[in-house]
Automatic annotation (TrEMBL):
Entries under PROSITE patterns matching the protein: DEAD_ATP_HELICASE (PS00039), HELICASE_ATP_BIND_1 (PS51192), HELICASE_CTER (PS51194), Q_MOTIF (PS51195)
Composition-biased stretches (Low complexity): 576-590
Domain Helicase ATP-binding residue range list: 30-205
Protein name: ATP-dependent RNA helicase DeaD
Species annotation: Entomobacter blattae
EC number: 3.6.4.13
Annotated DEAD-box RNA helicase Q domain residues: 1-27
GO annotation, cellular component aspect: cytosol
Source taxon at top rank: Bacteria
Length: 613
């Protein structure tokens, strides 16, 4: 055991949990806390912060390796979310198992009367959320007069959630002589300001500042067409086949749609978002812990506080808003020495944003396409062979699992090939069907050094009106024509038409040829290499009042209509019809009908919902 300054009771608890060597944050905090000094700590999510401050608190609270008789709390831990508060309570319960500790929890959404009884009976440590703690404080149930140490866990998150007033109310009620540990993933101006006000000459510990990337997490950035994000989630789940997976979406609506779509495809999944009651949230988390569900679809509210030991895969179905959120989400996996995978789905039109997020988080990701059907089938074969070679323990250790007579009967009646074929069929029948997804590679320009990239961009930058002329010499001569019922009367302009077509159809600017703007419609060319995929994508886009349809090549007469390469266009505002405002259209995260290719027709096609998570 290499933990410094530990009592035998704590060493015994750590040993039972399999701890042998402290993490960097645990070692740094333990060494610094020995002087009873205030600490301001910044470290990665999942780095062992709970054990770090639990051990540090023990140095201030234990008397002869035990805690004294319970009374008013001596330790207070404030957490931003219910999940994190419950997780901290569980962690401290096993850590203080042999110290006669009484730990009370005061968490929003739980039974306040039961919490009041716990506080009245006496306790050593209180763990709670800001709102519920303030409620007990105002009602005279929470006595902070004997407090020796207070911990602010995920302080940045509490400020982001608007708990500044509650924090100040709690900290103002604490005796002057106490020690404060403040833990935060980031140390922004608000955190520094809070620390200066409520800490006394705090020692700043920035464990992650010069640390290398989390070696237990394999970061993979996967390019995907914007309308195929939901389908990509299916293939990633099938390829990695993790015992437990978290899928992060940006909004509650996307969580509901994604959860529903995964259930329809045969994945045992639960949803976790802010609109659920506490009882529903607790049941969802418990089903994951008991392995009754394997996939949790969640908003960022679940990125804090969840600790699922078997969580081997995190999928970012929606890109996070900032680098800190990327780290918080990803930190749900790769814990306690276990390996994990973080799959970041990058829509083709958001590659630059993804690169900025990774750079801000100081992460290096392996870029590539979403697993294909062939990749998944190969993985399935490997897993089946391994399953046959290494029978599950419950089959080999039970008396009734193996019937020699039945085995001989099957061998005498069927050939080995027939038996193997049946095994494969039965194995595949229980698995969700993978999706056929267009492979998209990351733009090579994104991997150039910044200085080289700027120089390259300055040489290659052209206006939209030069687009057709620029691509003429290198573009494929084989193209298909499409039409959209938006023309001059709607202020049609390539400046906004080209980004719109690329976004809806999952194509790139270079795949678009001539654009011919007429009075009430616009005709445009799409490279035949991508025209079928484009047609499928725009056919299934939901929420638009206009229809993009395949047409025969128009008879363009020079000078009669506005040809894309012949004239420049005014910068008038684009047509503001539904779905064409530049904002993502809402809809289910799974798009397209399996096994069907829509016919090219000028009539309005039936369309399924489109996702822009």
């Amino acid at each position: 055991m290499f933990f410094p300054n530990l009592s035998p009771t704590l060493e015994r608890a750590l040993s039972e949990q399999g701890y042998t060597t402290p993490t960097p944050v645990q070692l740094s905090v333990l060494e610094a806390a020995s002087g009873e000094r205030d600490l301001l700590v910044s470290a990665q999510t999942g780095s062992g912060k709970t054990v770090a401050y639990g051990l540090s608190m023990a140095q201030l609270l234990l008397v002869d390796d035990k805690l004294p008789q319970a009374g008013p709390p001596m330790g207070l831990i404030i957490a931003p979310t219910r999940e994190l508060a419950m997780q901290v309570t569980r962690e401290l319960a096993w850590l203080y198992k042999f110290t006669n500790a009484r730990i009370a929890s005061c968490i929003g959404g739980m039974d306040a009367r039961k919490e009041a009884r716990q506080l009245q009976q006496g306790c050593h440590i209180v763990v709670g959320t800001p709102g519920r703690l303030c409620d007990h404080l105002r009602r005279g149930r929470l006595d902070l007069s004997s407090l020796k140490v207070v911990v602010l866990d995920e302080a940045d998150e509490m400020l982001d959630l608007g708990f500044r007033d509650e924090l100040e109310e709690l900290l103002s009620a604490i005796p002057e002589q106490h020690t404060t540990f403040m833990f935060s993933a980031t140390l922004g101006k608000d955190i520094i300001s809070l620390a200066k006000r409520y800490q006394n000459n705090a020692l700043r510990i920035d464990v992650g500042k010069n640390a290398s990337q989390h070696t237990d997490i394999d970061y993979q950035a996967m390019m995907v067409a914007p309308n195929e994000v939901g389908l990509a989630v299916v293939n990633i789940l099938r390829y990695f086949d993790s015992q437990t997976t978290m899928v992060f979406c940006a909004t509650r609506d996307l969580v509901r749609h994604m959860h529903s779509a995964l259930l329809e495809r045969g994945f045992s999944s639960v949803a976790l978002s802010g609109d659920l009651g506490q009882a529903e949230r607790t049941r969802a988390i418990e089903s994951l812990r008991l392995h009754q569900a394997r996939v949790c679809v969640a908003t960022d509210v679940a990125a804090r506080g969840l600790d699922l030991p078997a969580l081997g895969l995190v999928i970012h179905a929606s890109l996070p808003t900032n680098s800190a959120t990327l780290l918080h989400r990803s930190g749900r996996t790769g814990r306690a020495g276990r390996k994990g995978v973080c799959a970041i789905l990058v829509p083709a039109n958001q590659q630059r944003k993804a690169e900025r997020l990774l750079a801000g988080a100081k992460l290096s990701a392996q870029w590539g396409p979403v697993p294909s059907i062939q990749n998944i089938q190969k993985k399935d074969a490997e897993r089946l062979v391994q399953l046959v070679q290494e029978p599950a323990p419950e089959l080999s250790d039970t008396d009734t699992a193996f019937d020699p007579a039945l085995v001989q009967q099957l061998l005498s009646r069927y050939s080995p090939e027939e038996l193997a074929r049946t095994i494969v069929s039965l194995y595949q029948a229980q698995l969700p069907v993978p999706e056929d997804i267009r492979p998209i590679s990351a733009a090579s320009n994104s991997f150039k050094p910044v200085t080289e990239r700027k120089a390259s961009n300055s040489r290659q930058r052209t206006s939209y009106r030069d687009h057709d002329k620029q691509d003429t010499d290198h573009a494929p001569t084989e193209r298909d024509w499409f039409s959209i019922p938006v023309g001059r009367k709607n202020h049609a302009d390539p400046k906004w038409l080209i980004p719109l077509l690329c976004k809806l159809g999952g194509i790139k600017k270079k795949d678009i040829g001539t654009i011919h703007i007429q009075e009430s419609s616009t005709s445009f060319e799409i490279s035949q290499n991508f025209s079928e995929r484009f047609n499928n994508a725009v056919t299934f886009v939901d929420g638009n009042d206009v229809t993009i349809s395949a047409i025969n090549a128009p008879n363009i007469k020079k000078g009669r209509e506005r040809s894309f390469k012949e004239k420049s266009f005014s910068e008038k505002k684009p047509f503001s019809g539904k779905g064409f405002s530049g904002k993502p259209s809402s809809g289910k995260p799974f798009a397209g009908k399996k096994g069907k290719t829509p016919q090219k027709t000028e009539k309005k096609s039936s369309r399924k919902k489109h996702s822009t998570p």
